[in-house]
Structure formats: C-alpha cells, structure tokens
Amino acid sequence: MKRIIVAVSVLAVLGGAFAIIQLSMPAWYARWWYPLNNADAVRTNAGRYHLEPDLVAAVIYQESDFKEDSTSRSGAVGMMQLMPGTAAWIASKTGDQPPSRDDLKSPATNIRYGCWYLRYLLDRYGGSESLALAAYNGGSENVDRWLATARASGRKFNSAVDIPYPETREYITSVDKVKLIYQRAYGADLEHQ
After folding, report:
1. Is residue 58 located within the same domain as residue 127?
2. Are residues 162 and 181 in the same domain?
3. Residue 95 belongs to what domain range?
C-alpha cells in the first residue's frame, strides 16, 4: 500500500511539473516542440517581403510542421503548402518561370513564394493579419465574399462571426498563438540580420 501511495505522489508531482512547464512554455521547452528549420530562408524572405519572421515561422509550422516534402490531400506542396496554380501565378507576377512540384519542395523556393504571397495578401487586405491568414487558408475569393456579406449587413467584419469555416477560424487562432511562441522561443534567432 505504501508503494502505491509513493507512486501516486510521484506521478502527481511529475504531472504538476509538466503542467507548469506546459503553461509557462519556457524557451527551451518551446524549441523542443516548435522547430525552426531553414531559419536563414525564413529570416531572409521575411526581410525581403517586410514580414515578421515569427509570423512566417508560425504559418510554416501550421502548414507543414517544417516538413520540406509535405504535400496535402488537396495538392498543396512544401513547407508553406502552396498550390501549384498559386505558385505559377506568383511566378507570373515576379517574372520567374513557373516552378515545378519538385521546385516547390525546395525550402528556398517554397518559403520565398510563400512569403511573397503572404505579403500580397496583407497588402490586399489593408494590413489585416487575420484577413490575410483567412485568405491564405480559405482562399481570397471566400474572404472577399465574407467581407461583402458583412458590409451588406452594415457592420464591420468579425472573423469569429463572419468566417463560416471552423477550420479557417481555428487556423487564424492557432497561427496567432504559435506566432507568440516563436517570438518567445526564437526572438533573437529570427531577427533580420
């Protein structure tokens, strides 16, 4: 009986310690759970397109968990999960040749195109990070429709009310949360050099 009490006590202490670490998310712990692969490409392209590097890292984490060869069921490719059609459109805007699917798996190409697209969406939606993230996840055509519906109702857009896709609402919330984690865990490592 005494062994059971000791085992339960040890488990309770370990569980409490884990909960404290999980809630406080110290930098060393966050780095363990939230990777930062290809930090140079993240920093360089965030700087090139005037983006916050922690936002770029959070989008990459949310899209692919920093897995270079990631491909979604819908056909999105690479770390920032770009659709080949979107990448071809970006190439036409940047004067590049349309990248192949293999090109999109290259972190350098994928992060550059993903950052260009994220900057485009931020500019398109007046700097609204929430709207840009909603468009990145749910498509700009949908965001335009949601904005028009809110305006037609005589009110400002509210992502919690006006985005009918739970996945897109959760995406925005998750990227916002993860962005803060990347700020705390990698602050100096993500700064433009």
Report:
1. yes
2. yes
3. 36-190
pLDDT greater at residue 153 or residue 32: 153
Find all residues with CB under 8 Å of 155, minimum gap 6, and list them.
Answer: none
Known catalytic membership, residue 63 = yes
DSSP label of 108: H
The residue behind tokens 């909603």 is 134
Exposure of 179 in the CB half-sphere (CA atoms within 13 A)? 16
- How far apart (Å, rounded) are the C-alpha atoms in residues 188 and 185? 9
Single-letter amino acid, residue 112? R
Q: What is the pLDDT of residues 104-152, one digit of tens each?
A: 999 999 999 999 999 999 999 999 999 999 999 999 999 999 999 999 9
Token pair recorded at residue 17: 């310690």
Q: What is the pLDDT of residue 50?
A: 97
Residue 56 CB contacts under 8 Å (≥ 6 apart), including other chains: 42, 45, 46, 111, 114, 115, 118
State whether 66 and 116 are in the same domain.
yes
Chain centroid offset of residue 52 CA:
12
0.90 surpassed by pTM: no
Q: Which of 52, 63, 129, 167 is catalytic?
A: 63
- φ, ψ at 88 (rounded to 5°): -65, -40
Q: Is 77 helix (H, G, I), strand (E, B) or coil?
A: strand
Count each helix (H run) and each strand (E run) in the chain, helices first.
11, 0
Predicted confidence band of residue 191 (pLDDT cuts 50, 70, 90): confident
